[in-house]
Amino acid sequence: MQSLNDLRVKIDSIDAELIKLFEERMNISREIAEFKEKNGLSIYDQDREKKVIENNISHVSDELKVYVEEFVQCIMRISKKIQSKSTNVK
């Protein structure tokens, strides 16, 4: 069994990667907002959000599905906030 410290080091490494990926995702989200603004599209796309959630929960065990759904919804909520702040799209 690994020590608590070893396990925490692994968690810290995973967290660092998650933050890096989160920042990358938000940067792409800004680009999407610019596209939507130029093309007269709304930030909120119910069908897209449903597909994103379904796709992501399909990759995890049943016991984690509800948590992954919550996680993805949170990320999308933040993404929509960033899109709203970076453009005039609502």
TrEMBL record:
Record-listed E.C. numbers: 5.4.99.5
PROSITE patterns, A to Z: CHORISMATE_MUT_2 (PS51168)
Signal peptide coordinates: none
One GO term of the biological process aspect: salicylic acid biosynthetic process
GO molecular function (one): chorismate mutase activity
Keywords, ordered alphabetically: Coiled coil, Isomerase
Top EC class, one word: isomerase
Chain segments annotated as coiled-coil in the UniProt record: 4-38
SMART domains in alphabetical order: CM_2 (SM00830)
PANTHER family assigned: CHORISMATE MUTASE
UniProt-recorded name of the protein: Chorismate mutase
Source organism of the structure: Alkalibaculum sporogenes
